[in-house]
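S1.2 Input.
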Amino acid sequence: MHDVVGCIQSVKGENKMTVRQQILFLIEKYFLGEYDTSSYTSYLVKLYHVKNRGKFTPEEDAILKALVDSAVRFSPFEKDFQCDIGSKFFVREDAVQTKTKGAYQALLKLYQTESLESLYTETTE
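S1.3 Output.
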């Protein structure tokens, strides 16, 4: 497993990726098994809710919203699932993986590409 922030910075230097590029990078790398779920969900939520706000097309937002909603609710702690409210609110790692797979495939289809890499390595001004 890699450090999420370190890997994003190493792709383009001192984090010159746009928020969109960072999110696409993060989704693809998690899908490929390069990040643990806790780091992935934490950084995904931070990027989308704190740094994003309005930087995605409606089509991208439709795909990302369900994924980020799942990431917000992720818990690695079994005790969180033991009460009625927790079992209805929190999601496990497999749910995050399933949402990521669906989002990844939807993004590939949206961008009509085989990989998101060209989208997060393109030069930004």
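S1.4 Remarks. The chain has seven helices and no strands.
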